[in-house]
Fold these 4 entries.
Entry 1:
Amino acid sequence: MRRAMFASLILGLLAGCVIGPKVDAFPPARRPEGVGIDGSTTRQGSFTGELLEVRDAGLLLLLVPPATATTKRLVLLPYRAIHEARFDRLGAHYELKDGQPPTAATRERLQRVSRFPQGLSDPLLRTLLDAYGQAEIEQVPE
């Protein structure tokens, strides 16, 4: 009886190691960037970028320039300003819609796949702003 229980435990542990997304199928696990994000805002239209940090008020993004802009920029996107947002390879369960903030579970998952899951320190934020030629984070209007 004990041997059967021990064997079941070992098999369960081994099976647990192979369930879930594989490293080669999930780009944030292979590179330093955060997960990609595509969506639209209630006022400014569509956007594409990278999730840098998850904050209480919204998402800190590095936006990829549209055809009319030349440089990337750091933007704080309030949850209330999001019409819809989709995250690369996370599935529909993690989409944000209609200005609703993410649930606690979704927020935790998004934080883990962001570039800075531990949050950005002030010196590091200043370094990023300087690198992109910004005096401060751009705020998207709600």
Note: The chain is about 25% helix and 25% strand.
Entry 2:
Amino acid sequence: MALVQFGGGVSQIRGSIGGTVFSRGAGGAIARARTKPINPRSPLQNVRRSNHAYLTTYWSLTLTEQQRVDWRDYAHSTTWTNRLGQTIQINGLAAFVRINSLILLAGLPVVPAAPTATGHAGGVTISFAAQNDTKKFQLDEPGGAFDKDADGHTLYLFSGFPTEAGRIATPKGFRFLQTVDGDSVTPETFPLEVDAPYTMAEGQLLTMRAMFVDDHYRSSGPYFATATAAPST
């Protein structure tokens, strides 16, 4: 399924033409092949599906009406972008699910209250080394908005499937690695050793994705870094 950004002469399109089905979602216009979708059921995908179903039910049956109103207000007052970089509007449920899906990955309880500050968490930068012989990542101290000494700051780390060096392709098969929590008393020491979820060969390219949740429970967009697998020294 692909988002479509229209140029001059076309403003909207619905229905199907040949083997392509056109529709529109909350994020904009969509074009997809008219085929039966595959269902890879990766471990992370299964977790996300389960969490999405749980959070949707939680929204309907557990949140108070005032809490739902607060999430709608937060979503409406915050600027959101889709994969094309277009500014879009999402609803309160989508904002609630987007933020709490990350929180559930860390094994933490649902945060029912909407962020009291508008906007998103600040951006972060990450860098790491990938060791193919020990199947470990060595994560350098993150930069940007994440502060290892700040209580309530949480960095979520994911790793994509290894690809061959020089191959230009979007990494796939992302798996959740772990969180890095800010702590004003006993902050993490860097570089931080992180177990890799995949077997990797020397020379392969590894991609790590990071998302940041701040002390207002606002989430950031995804941020990426790559490293070439090499033996430990």
Note: The chain has three domains: 2-33, 43-105, 124-230.
Entry 3:
Amino acid sequence: MVVYSSKYGATKKAAELLREQLLKDGAERVELINLKTERPQDLSGFDTVAVGSSVYIGSINKKVKRFLEENKGELLRKKLGLFLCAGAEKQEDLEKIMSDNFNLELRSAALVTGYFGHAYYVDRMGLFDKMIIKKVGNVTENRENLDQKAIEAFAMNLTK
């Protein structure tokens, strides 16, 4: 199961790419759950769960945080992977975002953690987010920078 939340679509696309890779790597089925629109009914039918989120101003999505809190006990008994879609370029910034948003117990239990790059879909953003992304990142048009190799490595390590 791949559980994620995506505000403008980058994490959704990354989750879909992860699903495709897991299926290529031999998974029998991979269910995608977008927490923005649905909630997983039962995790007991899955031995492996990947949880991902987009990052805004250093924080993961609130629905992902809630999912992790509500399902922590169950997730600790699974093969667990945690991933982010974030625009930070420095490894230490990405690691800080990971440690600030996923508690130590979950990070320690995870078989793999990963950073799948980022995308800016300016045409989908509201005015406020457009202003922020223009000021902070000088981004004025759609830009996609998802890391297929990182997704492939994550999938491989998750299914070991």
Note: The chain has one domain: 2-119+146-158.
Entry 4:
Amino acid sequence: MRPAAHAALAIASAVTLSGAGLVASRGVPDWEMRQTRWLCGRSKGSRAALWPVMQIGSLPAPILTGTLLYRHCDDRRPAAISAGAGVMAWVGAKAVKRVVRRGRPAAYDDQVIPGENTRDSDGFVSGHAAVAASLAVSSSAFAPGSVVVLLSGAAVLAGLARVELGVHLPLDVVGGWALGVLCGQCSLMWSAQ
């Protein structure tokens, strides 16, 4: 991808993140709560099946992805870029949460029963969605196409699983994906210099 394309995608991600953050900071629109109720808790069995997929968005995932890229490429640079993007997304999500201060779904609707303990924590943005998206984007320059497709699909599923689990609202996930793409693009642009 050309540097201009990386920059354009980073700008688009920043605009998406800002727009979602603006809407999220004003509460939960009715349409978003309806979507959350529809997706949340669709089936008890799906929660157990989606748990492993959500781990692509956990903090250890960037280290594991970096290690696998190092083994595949026999080069530290791709490993550092991918791991750095994932950690940047995780830290960035924590920072955004402190600024936006939006609650989890159960804070807005008592019909939503979260599948994990999220008491006293903010929801916007989804750190799992951010980390997973950053790994898919940052790996795209180095990993085989099939791996990039797998990581991209896992990023989508990880975000949707967070809503199904009742711990995030849809805009939390969209904001997380945007933050992750931004971090992935920034790491690729930085590495190109």
Note: Residues 76-100 form the longest helix (25 residues).
